[in-house]
Write the C-alpha coordinates for this entry.
Amino acid sequence: MAIDIDTARKVAKLARIRVEEADLPKLADQLSGILGFMEELNEVDVEGVEPMTSVTPMRLKRRADVVTDGNIQAEVLKNAPDAREGFFAVPKVVE
Amino acid sequence: MSAPMTSANSWTIAAARDALRKGEISAVDLTMSCLTAIDAGDGLNAFVYKTPEIALEQARAADARIAESRKSGGEAPAMCGIPLGIKDLFCTKGVPSQAASNILKGFRPEYESTVTSKLFGAGAVMLGKLNMDEFAMGSSNETSCYGNAVSPWRRKGANVQLTPGGSSGGSAAAVAADLCLAATGTDTGGSIRQPAAFTGIVGIKPTYGRVSRWGIVAFASSLDQAGPMTKSVRDAAIMLQAMAGHDPKDSTSADIPVPDFEAALTGDIRGKVIGIPKEYRMDGMPEEIEALWAKGVAMLRDAGAEVRDISLPHTKYALPAYYVIAPAEASSNLARYDGVRYGHRAKLAQGDGITEMYEKTRAEGFGPEVQRRVMVGTYVLSAGFYDAYYNRARKVRALIKRDFETAFAEGVDAILTPATPSAAFGLGEMADADPVKMYLNDVFTVTVNLAGLPGISVPVGLDAQGLPLGLQLIGRPWEEGALLNYAHVLESRAGFVAKAEKWW
Protein backbone atom coordinates (compact mmCIF):
# COMPACT_ATOMS: atom_id res chain seq x y z
CA MET A 1 0.00 0.00 0.00
CA ALA A 2 1.41 3.35 -0.98
CA ILE A 3 1.83 5.92 1.75
CA ASP A 4 0.77 9.40 0.67
CA ILE A 5 2.10 12.63 2.10
CA ASP A 6 -0.85 13.07 4.46
CA THR A 7 -0.32 9.61 5.92
CA ALA A 8 3.40 10.26 6.32
CA ARG A 9 2.60 13.48 8.17
CA LYS A 10 0.18 11.64 10.41
CA VAL A 11 2.64 8.85 11.20
CA ALA A 12 5.34 11.39 12.06
CA LYS A 13 2.89 13.11 14.38
CA LEU A 14 1.94 9.83 16.07
CA ALA A 15 5.63 8.99 16.50
CA ARG A 16 6.30 12.47 17.94
CA ILE A 17 9.06 13.13 15.44
CA ARG A 18 9.11 16.52 13.71
CA VAL A 19 9.46 16.13 9.95
CA GLU A 20 9.73 19.26 7.80
CA GLU A 21 7.11 19.59 5.04
CA ALA A 22 9.83 19.48 2.40
CA ASP A 23 11.01 16.10 3.68
CA LEU A 24 7.60 14.44 3.66
CA PRO A 25 7.57 13.26 0.01
CA LYS A 26 10.85 11.38 0.44
CA LEU A 27 9.67 9.89 3.72
CA ALA A 28 6.38 8.78 2.16
CA ASP A 29 8.33 7.19 -0.67
CA GLN A 30 10.65 5.28 1.66
CA LEU A 31 7.82 4.13 3.91
CA SER A 32 5.93 2.92 0.82
CA GLY A 33 8.97 0.91 -0.26
CA ILE A 34 9.32 -0.74 3.13
CA LEU A 35 5.60 -1.46 3.43
CA GLY A 36 5.59 -2.84 -0.11
CA PHE A 37 8.23 -5.30 1.00
CA MET A 38 5.94 -6.35 3.87
CA GLU A 39 3.08 -7.05 1.47
CA GLU A 40 4.81 -10.36 0.69
CA LEU A 41 3.34 -11.60 3.95
CA ASN A 42 -0.09 -11.62 2.32
CA GLU A 43 0.96 -14.68 0.29
CA VAL A 44 1.16 -16.80 3.45
CA ASP A 45 -1.79 -18.90 4.54
CA VAL A 46 -2.12 -18.02 8.23
CA GLU A 47 -5.58 -19.49 8.69
CA GLY A 48 -5.91 -20.88 12.22
CA VAL A 49 -2.40 -19.82 13.30
CA GLU A 50 -2.10 -18.12 16.68
CA PRO A 51 0.06 -14.97 16.61
CA MET A 52 3.26 -15.60 18.56
CA THR A 53 3.53 -13.74 21.84
CA SER A 54 6.58 -15.40 23.37
CA VAL A 55 9.25 -17.29 21.50
CA THR A 56 9.97 -19.69 24.35
CA PRO A 57 6.89 -20.93 26.10
CA MET A 58 7.36 -19.92 29.71
CA ARG A 59 5.25 -18.84 32.62
CA LEU A 60 6.18 -15.43 33.87
CA LYS A 61 7.84 -15.86 37.22
CA ARG A 62 6.33 -14.28 40.27
CA ARG A 63 8.20 -12.67 43.08
CA ALA A 64 7.29 -11.67 46.58
CA ASP A 65 5.46 -8.35 46.68
CA VAL A 66 8.12 -6.48 48.60
CA VAL A 67 10.07 -3.30 48.03
CA THR A 68 13.49 -4.18 46.62
CA ASP A 69 14.74 -0.79 45.58
CA GLY A 70 14.16 2.88 46.14
CA ASN A 71 15.27 5.99 48.03
CA ILE A 72 17.56 6.92 45.16
CA GLN A 73 16.04 10.23 44.08
CA ALA A 74 19.41 11.80 43.31
CA GLU A 75 20.45 8.90 41.05
CA VAL A 76 17.11 8.92 39.25
CA LEU A 77 17.37 12.63 38.52
CA LYS A 78 21.07 12.69 37.78
CA ASN A 79 20.77 12.35 34.01
CA ALA A 80 17.72 14.60 33.61
CA PRO A 81 18.14 17.51 31.16
CA ASP A 82 16.21 19.68 33.61
CA ALA A 83 15.56 18.66 37.22
CA ARG A 84 14.32 21.07 39.88
CA GLU A 85 13.51 20.59 43.55
CA GLY A 86 13.50 16.83 43.23
CA PHE A 87 11.33 16.72 40.11
CA PHE A 88 11.77 16.34 36.36
CA ALA A 89 10.98 19.74 34.87
CA VAL A 90 9.08 20.09 31.57
CA PRO A 91 7.34 22.94 29.72
CA LYS A 92 3.94 23.89 31.07
CA VAL A 93 1.40 21.16 30.25
CA VAL A 94 -1.84 22.76 31.46
CA GLU A 95 -2.88 26.38 31.15
CA MET B 1 53.18 -23.57 27.61
CA SER B 2 55.55 -20.65 27.43
CA ALA B 3 54.23 -17.20 26.70
CA PRO B 4 53.78 -16.80 22.93
CA MET B 5 56.14 -14.45 21.15
CA THR B 6 53.34 -12.51 19.53
CA SER B 7 52.11 -9.54 21.50
CA ALA B 8 49.59 -10.43 24.13
CA ASN B 9 46.74 -8.39 22.66
CA SER B 10 46.51 -10.95 19.83
CA TRP B 11 46.01 -13.89 22.19
CA THR B 12 42.86 -15.88 22.59
CA ILE B 13 41.01 -15.86 25.90
CA ALA B 14 41.99 -19.50 26.42
CA ALA B 15 45.70 -18.80 25.92
CA ALA B 16 45.60 -15.71 28.13
CA ARG B 17 43.68 -17.55 30.86
CA ASP B 18 46.28 -20.30 30.95
CA ALA B 19 49.21 -17.86 30.91
CA LEU B 20 47.63 -15.72 33.66
CA ARG B 21 47.01 -18.73 35.89
CA LYS B 22 50.59 -19.90 35.43
CA GLY B 23 51.90 -16.45 36.19
CA GLU B 24 53.53 -16.11 32.76
CA ILE B 25 51.94 -12.72 32.26
CA SER B 26 50.15 -10.27 34.54
CA ALA B 27 46.69 -8.92 33.84
CA VAL B 28 48.22 -5.43 33.95
CA ASP B 29 50.72 -6.26 31.18
CA LEU B 30 48.02 -7.96 29.13
CA THR B 31 45.77 -4.93 29.55
CA MET B 32 48.60 -2.53 28.69
CA SER B 33 49.24 -4.36 25.42
CA CYS B 34 45.57 -3.91 24.50
CA LEU B 35 45.53 -0.23 25.56
CA THR B 36 48.58 0.36 23.35
CA ALA B 37 46.91 -1.40 20.42
CA ILE B 38 43.73 0.63 20.97
CA ASP B 39 45.62 3.95 20.88
CA ALA B 40 47.33 2.85 17.69
CA GLY B 41 43.99 1.73 16.24
CA ASP B 42 42.08 5.02 16.22
CA GLY B 43 41.82 4.78 12.42
CA LEU B 44 39.35 1.93 12.88
CA ASN B 45 37.01 4.08 15.00
CA ALA B 46 36.10 0.93 16.93
CA PHE B 47 36.53 2.25 20.47
CA VAL B 48 34.38 5.34 20.92
CA TYR B 49 35.08 5.81 24.63
CA LYS B 50 38.25 4.52 26.24
CA THR B 51 38.42 3.59 29.92
CA PRO B 52 42.13 3.01 30.62
CA GLU B 53 41.88 3.98 34.32
CA ILE B 54 39.06 1.53 34.96
CA ALA B 55 40.91 -1.12 32.93
CA LEU B 56 44.13 -0.82 34.92
CA GLU B 57 42.30 -0.78 38.24
CA GLN B 58 40.38 -3.92 37.26
CA ALA B 59 43.61 -5.53 35.96
CA ARG B 60 45.38 -4.88 39.27
CA ALA B 61 42.45 -6.40 41.14
CA ALA B 62 42.55 -9.40 38.78
CA ASP B 63 46.25 -9.92 39.43
CA ALA B 64 45.61 -9.87 43.18
CA ARG B 65 42.75 -12.35 42.79
CA ILE B 66 44.80 -14.70 40.61
CA ALA B 67 47.68 -14.59 43.12
CA GLU B 68 45.25 -15.23 45.98
CA SER B 69 43.72 -18.21 44.17
CA ARG B 70 47.12 -19.66 43.42
CA LYS B 71 48.11 -19.35 47.08
CA SER B 72 45.02 -21.18 48.21
CA GLY B 73 45.46 -23.90 45.60
CA GLY B 74 42.36 -22.89 43.63
CA GLU B 75 41.81 -21.28 40.24
CA ALA B 76 40.58 -17.78 39.47
CA PRO B 77 37.55 -17.64 37.12
CA ALA B 78 38.39 -18.14 33.43
CA MET B 79 37.56 -14.51 32.57
CA CYS B 80 39.70 -13.09 35.39
CA GLY B 81 42.12 -10.54 33.93
CA ILE B 82 40.77 -10.84 30.36
CA PRO B 83 40.57 -7.40 28.64
CA LEU B 84 37.31 -6.85 26.77
CA GLY B 85 35.60 -4.24 24.66
CA ILE B 86 31.98 -3.50 25.55
CA LYS B 87 29.39 -2.57 22.93
CA ASP B 88 27.94 0.89 23.58
CA LEU B 89 24.47 -0.70 23.95
CA PHE B 90 25.39 -2.04 27.41
CA CYS B 91 24.82 0.30 30.33
CA THR B 92 28.04 0.63 32.27
CA LYS B 93 27.92 2.49 35.56
CA GLY B 94 29.37 5.98 35.39
CA VAL B 95 30.67 5.41 31.86
CA PRO B 96 28.94 6.98 28.82
CA SER B 97 26.47 4.51 27.28
CA GLN B 98 24.58 6.05 24.44
CA ALA B 99 23.74 3.27 21.99
CA ALA B 100 25.60 5.31 19.34
CA SER B 101 22.74 7.80 19.39
CA ASN B 102 22.76 11.56 19.88
CA ILE B 103 19.57 11.25 21.88
CA LEU B 104 21.55 9.63 24.72
CA LYS B 105 24.39 12.12 24.55
CA GLY B 106 25.90 12.64 27.97
CA PHE B 107 24.01 9.72 29.53
CA ARG B 108 26.03 8.03 32.26
CA PRO B 109 24.03 5.17 33.76
CA GLU B 110 23.71 4.92 37.50
CA TYR B 111 23.66 1.14 37.16
CA GLU B 112 25.51 -1.72 35.50
CA SER B 113 23.93 -4.16 33.02
CA THR B 114 23.63 -7.74 34.26
CA VAL B 115 25.97 -9.03 31.54
CA THR B 116 28.76 -6.56 32.29
CA SER B 117 28.40 -6.99 36.03
CA LYS B 118 28.68 -10.77 35.61
CA LEU B 119 31.78 -10.34 33.44
CA PHE B 120 33.39 -7.86 35.82
CA GLY B 121 32.37 -10.03 38.76
CA ALA B 122 34.35 -12.83 37.14
CA GLY B 123 37.35 -10.49 36.97
CA ALA B 124 37.15 -9.32 33.34
CA VAL B 125 38.65 -5.96 32.41
CA MET B 126 36.79 -3.20 30.51
CA LEU B 127 38.94 -1.40 27.94
CA GLY B 128 36.18 0.90 26.73
CA LYS B 129 32.96 1.21 24.77
CA LEU B 130 32.60 0.06 21.18
CA ASN B 131 31.04 1.63 18.12
CA MET B 132 27.80 0.24 16.69
CA ASP B 133 24.82 1.20 14.55
CA GLU B 134 22.49 3.64 16.29
CA PHE B 135 20.23 1.64 18.63
CA ALA B 136 21.62 -1.46 16.87
CA MET B 137 19.60 -0.59 13.75
CA GLY B 138 21.83 -1.24 10.78
CA SER B 139 24.02 -3.80 9.08
CA SER B 140 27.11 -1.72 8.31
CA ASN B 141 27.82 0.49 11.34
CA GLU B 142 27.03 3.50 9.15
CA THR B 143 24.11 4.78 11.25
CA SER B 144 26.31 5.50 14.29
CA CYS B 145 26.45 9.01 15.76
CA TYR B 146 30.21 8.44 16.17
CA GLY B 147 30.77 7.88 12.44
CA ASN B 148 31.60 4.60 10.72
CA ALA B 149 33.62 1.86 12.32
CA VAL B 150 36.11 0.60 9.74
CA SER B 151 37.01 -3.02 9.07
CA PRO B 152 40.69 -3.93 9.46
CA TRP B 153 40.25 -5.99 6.27
CA ARG B 154 40.82 -4.61 2.78
CA ARG B 155 40.33 -6.10 -0.64
CA LYS B 156 43.56 -7.37 -2.14
CA GLY B 157 45.51 -4.52 -3.70
CA ALA B 158 42.88 -1.91 -2.83
CA ASN B 159 42.56 0.68 -0.11
CA VAL B 160 38.80 1.12 -0.16
CA GLN B 161 37.47 1.23 3.40
CA LEU B 162 35.15 -1.67 4.10
CA THR B 163 32.35 -2.09 6.61
CA PRO B 164 32.99 -4.38 9.57
CA GLY B 165 29.26 -5.15 9.40
CA GLY B 166 26.64 -4.20 11.92
CA SER B 167 25.22 -3.53 14.21
CA SER B 168 28.12 -4.82 16.38
CA GLY B 169 30.64 -3.33 13.93
CA GLY B 170 32.97 -1.79 16.51
CA SER B 171 33.07 -5.09 18.40
CA ALA B 172 33.96 -7.01 15.23
CA ALA B 173 36.62 -4.52 14.11
CA ALA B 174 38.20 -4.40 17.58
CA VAL B 175 38.42 -8.19 17.96
CA ALA B 176 39.63 -8.77 14.38
CA ALA B 177 42.30 -6.08 14.75
CA ASP B 178 43.47 -7.44 18.13
CA LEU B 179 42.56 -4.29 20.06
CA CYS B 180 41.04 -6.56 22.70
CA LEU B 181 40.83 -10.29 23.36
CA ALA B 182 37.06 -10.40 22.87
CA ALA B 183 34.00 -8.16 22.93
CA THR B 184 30.35 -8.19 23.84
CA GLY B 185 27.82 -7.95 21.04
CA THR B 186 24.06 -8.01 20.71
CA ASP B 187 21.98 -9.63 17.99
CA THR B 188 18.40 -8.75 17.04
CA GLY B 189 18.45 -9.91 13.40
CA GLY B 190 22.08 -10.89 12.83
CA SER B 191 24.04 -8.12 14.54
CA ILE B 192 26.59 -10.51 16.10
CA ARG B 193 26.82 -13.10 13.33
CA GLN B 194 27.00 -10.84 10.23
CA PRO B 195 29.86 -8.64 11.54
CA ALA B 196 31.67 -11.75 12.83
CA ALA B 197 31.45 -13.25 9.33
CA PHE B 198 32.61 -10.00 7.68
CA THR B 199 35.73 -9.80 9.87
CA GLY B 200 36.79 -13.44 10.18
CA ILE B 201 35.92 -13.94 13.85
CA VAL B 202 33.45 -16.08 15.83
CA GLY B 203 30.13 -14.77 17.12
CA ILE B 204 27.31 -16.60 18.86
CA LYS B 205 23.76 -15.49 19.51
CA PRO B 206 22.47 -17.69 22.31
CA THR B 207 18.94 -19.05 22.71
CA TYR B 208 16.48 -16.28 23.57
CA GLY B 209 16.44 -16.12 27.37
CA ARG B 210 19.92 -17.58 27.94
CA VAL B 211 21.48 -14.19 28.64
CA SER B 212 19.82 -11.43 30.66
CA ARG B 213 18.77 -8.34 28.73
CA TRP B 214 18.65 -6.17 31.86
CA GLY B 215 20.64 -2.98 31.42
CA ILE B 216 21.05 -3.42 27.66
CA VAL B 217 19.37 -0.62 25.71
CA ALA B 218 16.32 -2.31 24.20
CA PHE B 219 15.71 -2.41 20.43
CA ALA B 220 13.19 -5.25 19.86
CA SER B 221 12.68 -7.02 23.15
CA SER B 222 11.34 -10.31 21.79
CA LEU B 223 14.37 -10.69 19.49
CA ASP B 224 17.35 -9.11 21.32
CA GLN B 225 20.04 -11.35 22.79
CA ALA B 226 23.59 -10.56 23.85
CA GLY B 227 26.51 -12.82 23.09
CA PRO B 228 30.31 -12.97 22.83
CA MET B 229 32.42 -12.05 19.79
CA THR B 230 35.75 -13.84 19.96
CA LYS B 231 38.81 -15.13 18.12
CA SER B 232 37.91 -18.79 18.51
CA VAL B 233 34.99 -21.10 19.24
CA ARG B 234 36.61 -22.11 22.53
CA ASP B 235 36.74 -18.44 23.55
CA ALA B 236 33.05 -18.09 22.67
CA ALA B 237 32.29 -21.03 24.98
CA ILE B 238 34.35 -19.55 27.84
CA MET B 239 32.90 -16.06 27.56
CA LEU B 240 29.29 -17.16 27.03
CA GLN B 241 29.62 -19.21 30.21
CA ALA B 242 30.36 -16.03 32.14
CA MET B 243 27.54 -14.02 30.48
CA ALA B 244 24.73 -16.58 30.74
CA GLY B 245 22.35 -17.41 33.54
CA HIS B 246 19.03 -16.58 35.12
CA ASP B 247 18.41 -13.01 36.22
CA PRO B 248 15.37 -12.09 38.32
CA LYS B 249 15.56 -8.60 36.80
CA ASP B 250 14.74 -9.93 33.30
CA SER B 251 11.43 -11.80 33.35
CA THR B 252 12.26 -13.44 30.01
CA SER B 253 15.56 -14.85 31.22
CA ALA B 254 15.31 -18.62 31.62
CA ASP B 255 15.68 -20.20 35.02
CA ILE B 256 17.53 -23.26 33.81
CA PRO B 257 21.08 -24.39 34.61
CA VAL B 258 23.97 -23.22 32.42
CA PRO B 259 26.01 -26.25 31.38
CA ASP B 260 29.80 -26.24 31.01
CA PHE B 261 30.11 -25.02 27.42
CA GLU B 262 33.86 -25.52 27.09
CA ALA B 263 33.54 -29.13 28.26
CA ALA B 264 31.12 -29.71 25.36
CA LEU B 265 33.94 -29.14 22.83
CA THR B 266 34.78 -32.81 22.38
CA GLY B 267 35.29 -32.67 18.63
CA ASP B 268 33.12 -35.76 18.30
CA ILE B 269 30.10 -35.23 16.05
CA ARG B 270 29.84 -38.76 14.65
CA GLY B 271 26.29 -39.74 13.82
CA LYS B 272 24.90 -36.23 14.34
CA VAL B 273 22.47 -35.03 11.71
CA ILE B 274 23.22 -31.72 10.00
CA GLY B 275 20.37 -30.25 7.98
CA ILE B 276 20.93 -28.24 4.79
CA PRO B 277 17.87 -26.09 4.10
CA LYS B 278 17.13 -25.80 0.40
CA GLU B 279 15.39 -22.42 0.84
CA TYR B 280 18.72 -20.82 1.79
CA ARG B 281 19.98 -21.37 -1.75
CA MET B 282 19.00 -17.91 -2.94
CA ASP B 283 18.71 -16.77 -6.53
CA GLY B 284 21.77 -14.81 -7.50
CA MET B 285 23.84 -16.07 -4.59
CA PRO B 286 27.54 -15.60 -5.40
CA GLU B 287 29.28 -18.79 -6.47
CA GLU B 288 31.88 -18.31 -3.77
CA ILE B 289 29.24 -18.49 -1.05
CA GLU B 290 27.80 -21.61 -2.66
CA ALA B 291 31.29 -23.18 -2.79
CA LEU B 292 32.00 -22.24 0.83
CA TRP B 293 28.77 -23.86 1.93
CA ALA B 294 29.64 -27.05 0.03
CA LYS B 295 33.06 -27.01 1.68
CA GLY B 296 31.41 -26.80 5.10
CA VAL B 297 29.13 -29.70 4.26
CA ALA B 298 32.14 -31.80 3.22
CA MET B 299 34.00 -30.97 6.44
CA LEU B 300 31.12 -31.98 8.70
CA ARG B 301 30.48 -35.14 6.69
CA ASP B 302 34.17 -35.96 6.86
CA ALA B 303 33.97 -35.63 10.65
CA GLY B 304 31.31 -38.32 10.72
CA ALA B 305 28.10 -36.28 10.67
CA GLU B 306 25.16 -37.30 8.52
CA VAL B 307 24.22 -34.48 6.17
CA ARG B 308 20.57 -34.29 5.18
CA ASP B 309 18.62 -31.97 2.87
CA ILE B 310 15.77 -30.30 4.70
CA SER B 311 13.07 -27.77 3.96
CA LEU B 312 12.20 -24.66 5.97
CA PRO B 313 9.34 -23.52 3.75
CA HIS B 314 8.60 -20.12 5.34
CA THR B 315 12.19 -18.82 5.13
CA LYS B 316 11.28 -16.35 2.40
CA TYR B 317 8.88 -14.54 4.71
CA ALA B 318 11.30 -14.09 7.59
CA LEU B 319 12.68 -10.74 6.46
CA PRO B 320 9.32 -9.06 5.83
CA ALA B 321 8.00 -10.46 9.13
CA TYR B 322 11.09 -9.18 10.92
CA TYR B 323 10.71 -5.73 9.41
CA VAL B 324 7.20 -5.53 10.85
CA ILE B 325 7.93 -6.98 14.28
CA ALA B 326 11.28 -5.33 15.02
CA PRO B 327 10.16 -1.75 14.15
CA ALA B 328 6.88 -2.29 16.03
CA GLU B 329 8.75 -3.22 19.18
CA ALA B 330 11.32 -0.49 18.58
CA SER B 331 8.67 2.21 18.25
CA SER B 332 7.38 1.18 21.64
CA ASN B 333 10.79 0.81 23.30
CA LEU B 334 12.09 4.09 21.92
CA ALA B 335 9.07 6.05 23.14
CA ARG B 336 11.01 6.59 26.37
CA TYR B 337 13.45 8.96 24.63
CA ASP B 338 11.41 12.09 25.09
CA GLY B 339 13.87 14.57 26.54
CA VAL B 340 12.46 14.33 30.08
CA ARG B 341 14.45 11.83 32.11
CA TYR B 342 17.80 11.48 30.39
CA GLY B 343 19.75 12.34 27.28
CA HIS B 344 19.17 15.14 24.83
CA ARG B 345 16.45 17.78 25.04
CA ALA B 346 15.96 20.19 22.15
CA LYS B 347 16.20 23.94 22.73
CA LEU B 348 12.67 25.22 22.70
CA ALA B 349 11.28 28.35 21.09
CA GLN B 350 9.05 30.85 22.84
CA GLY B 351 5.62 29.30 23.35
CA ASP B 352 6.68 25.71 22.66
CA GLY B 353 4.77 23.22 24.77
CA ILE B 354 5.49 19.66 25.72
CA THR B 355 4.49 18.21 22.33
CA GLU B 356 6.96 20.50 20.55
CA MET B 357 9.57 19.40 23.07
CA TYR B 358 8.98 15.74 22.25
CA GLU B 359 8.90 16.28 18.51
CA LYS B 360 11.96 18.52 18.29
CA THR B 361 13.96 16.38 20.73
CA ARG B 362 13.29 13.18 18.80
CA ALA B 363 13.90 14.81 15.39
CA GLU B 364 17.27 16.10 16.58
CA GLY B 365 18.26 13.06 18.61
CA PHE B 366 17.38 10.16 16.31
CA GLY B 367 19.22 9.56 13.05
CA PRO B 368 17.37 8.89 9.77
CA GLU B 369 17.31 5.06 9.97
CA VAL B 370 16.03 5.08 13.56
CA GLN B 371 13.38 7.66 12.66
CA ARG B 372 12.31 5.53 9.72
CA ARG B 373 11.97 2.40 11.82
CA VAL B 374 10.11 4.16 14.62
CA MET B 375 7.67 5.51 12.06
CA VAL B 376 7.24 2.14 10.32
CA GLY B 377 6.59 0.62 13.73
CA THR B 378 4.12 3.35 14.59
CA TYR B 379 2.30 2.77 11.32
CA VAL B 380 2.01 -1.03 11.61
CA LEU B 381 0.70 -0.68 15.17
CA SER B 382 -1.77 2.08 14.38
CA ALA B 383 -5.51 1.55 14.46
CA GLY B 384 -6.72 -0.19 11.32
CA PHE B 385 -3.37 -1.69 10.39
CA TYR B 386 -2.55 -3.68 13.51
CA ASP B 387 -4.20 -6.84 12.23
CA ALA B 388 -3.09 -6.50 8.63
CA TYR B 389 0.58 -6.05 9.48
CA TYR B 390 1.54 -6.73 13.06
CA ASN B 391 -0.74 -9.69 13.83
CA ARG B 392 -0.10 -11.25 10.43
CA ALA B 393 3.66 -10.95 10.97
CA ARG B 394 3.34 -12.61 14.38
CA LYS B 395 1.42 -15.48 12.77
CA VAL B 396 4.10 -15.87 10.12
CA ARG B 397 6.66 -15.85 12.90
CA ALA B 398 4.87 -18.79 14.52
CA LEU B 399 5.08 -20.65 11.18
CA ILE B 400 8.80 -19.91 10.84
CA LYS B 401 9.40 -21.32 14.30
CA ARG B 402 7.28 -24.36 13.43
CA ASP B 403 9.50 -25.04 10.38
CA PHE B 404 12.51 -25.39 12.69
CA GLU B 405 10.58 -27.47 15.24
CA THR B 406 9.57 -29.87 12.50
CA ALA B 407 13.17 -30.27 11.32
CA PHE B 408 14.40 -30.88 14.87
CA ALA B 409 11.58 -33.33 15.54
CA GLU B 410 12.62 -35.28 12.45
CA GLY B 411 16.04 -35.82 13.96
CA VAL B 412 18.08 -32.85 12.75
CA ASP B 413 20.65 -31.81 15.38
CA ALA B 414 21.88 -28.61 13.75
CA ILE B 415 21.50 -26.66 10.53
CA LEU B 416 24.32 -25.34 8.33
CA THR B 417 23.83 -22.20 6.21
CA PRO B 418 25.91 -19.33 4.86
CA ALA B 419 26.22 -16.50 7.40
CA THR B 420 25.87 -13.67 4.89
CA PRO B 421 24.90 -13.35 1.23
CA SER B 422 28.26 -11.72 0.36
CA ALA B 423 31.61 -10.64 1.77
CA ALA B 424 31.93 -7.19 3.39
CA PHE B 425 31.01 -4.27 1.15
CA GLY B 426 32.61 -0.86 0.98
CA LEU B 427 31.56 1.92 3.36
CA GLY B 428 29.21 4.21 1.48
CA GLU B 429 28.57 1.68 -1.29
CA MET B 430 24.98 1.21 -0.15
CA ALA B 431 24.31 4.89 0.50
CA ASP B 432 22.04 5.32 -2.51
CA ALA B 433 20.38 1.93 -2.26
CA ASP B 434 16.86 1.84 -0.89
CA PRO B 435 16.62 0.76 2.77
CA VAL B 436 15.27 -2.67 1.85
CA LYS B 437 18.50 -3.56 0.03
CA MET B 438 20.48 -3.09 3.25
CA TYR B 439 17.95 -5.24 5.07
CA LEU B 440 18.79 -8.19 2.76
CA ASN B 441 22.10 -8.58 4.62
CA ASP B 442 20.17 -10.30 7.38
CA VAL B 443 18.50 -12.84 5.10
CA PHE B 444 20.27 -15.90 6.58
CA THR B 445 20.40 -14.78 10.19
CA VAL B 446 17.02 -13.22 10.91
CA THR B 447 15.08 -16.52 10.97
CA VAL B 448 17.12 -17.57 13.99
CA ASN B 449 16.01 -14.53 16.05
CA LEU B 450 12.39 -15.00 15.02
CA ALA B 451 12.54 -18.62 16.22
CA GLY B 452 14.56 -17.76 19.35
CA LEU B 453 17.26 -20.32 18.48
CA PRO B 454 21.01 -20.24 19.09
CA GLY B 455 23.13 -19.44 16.03
CA ILE B 456 26.88 -19.13 15.56
CA SER B 457 29.03 -17.72 12.78
CA VAL B 458 32.38 -19.39 12.11
CA PRO B 459 35.05 -18.09 9.69
CA VAL B 460 35.66 -20.73 7.05
CA GLY B 461 37.49 -19.15 4.12
CA LEU B 462 38.48 -16.12 2.07
CA ASP B 463 36.89 -14.92 -1.15
CA ALA B 464 38.83 -14.17 -4.33
CA GLN B 465 39.47 -10.64 -3.07
CA GLY B 466 40.96 -11.93 0.15
CA LEU B 467 38.00 -11.13 2.40
CA PRO B 468 36.69 -13.47 5.11
CA LEU B 469 33.53 -15.51 4.61
CA GLY B 470 31.65 -17.32 7.35
CA LEU B 471 29.18 -20.13 7.74
CA GLN B 472 26.35 -20.21 10.24
CA LEU B 473 25.29 -23.16 12.37
CA ILE B 474 21.84 -23.10 13.95
CA GLY B 475 21.17 -25.27 17.00
CA ARG B 476 18.28 -26.62 19.02
CA PRO B 477 17.00 -24.36 21.78
CA TRP B 478 19.19 -24.41 24.93
CA GLU B 479 21.77 -26.64 23.24
CA GLU B 480 24.52 -24.05 22.83
CA GLY B 481 27.05 -26.64 24.07
CA ALA B 482 26.33 -29.04 21.21
CA LEU B 483 26.19 -26.12 18.78
CA LEU B 484 29.60 -24.87 19.91
CA ASN B 485 30.94 -28.39 19.42
CA TYR B 486 29.76 -28.50 15.77
CA ALA B 487 31.27 -25.05 15.30
CA HIS B 488 34.50 -26.24 16.89
CA VAL B 489 34.71 -29.12 14.39
CA LEU B 490 34.04 -26.74 11.49
CA GLU B 491 36.66 -24.33 12.82
CA SER B 492 39.39 -26.93 13.22
CA ARG B 493 38.73 -28.46 9.79
CA ALA B 494 38.57 -25.07 8.07
CA GLY B 495 41.83 -24.03 9.74
CA PHE B 496 41.06 -20.35 9.22
CA VAL B 497 44.11 -18.39 10.45
CA ALA B 498 44.13 -15.39 8.12
CA LYS B 499 44.51 -11.96 9.71
CA ALA B 500 43.95 -8.54 8.24
CA GLU B 501 47.19 -6.95 7.11
CA LYS B 502 47.91 -4.00 9.35
CA TRP B 503 47.38 -0.62 7.64
CA TRP B 504 45.98 1.41 10.52
Remarks:
- The helical segments of chain A are 5-14, 24-38, 73-77.
- Chain A touches chain B through 51 residues (CB under 8 Å).
- The longest strand of chain A covers residues 83-84.
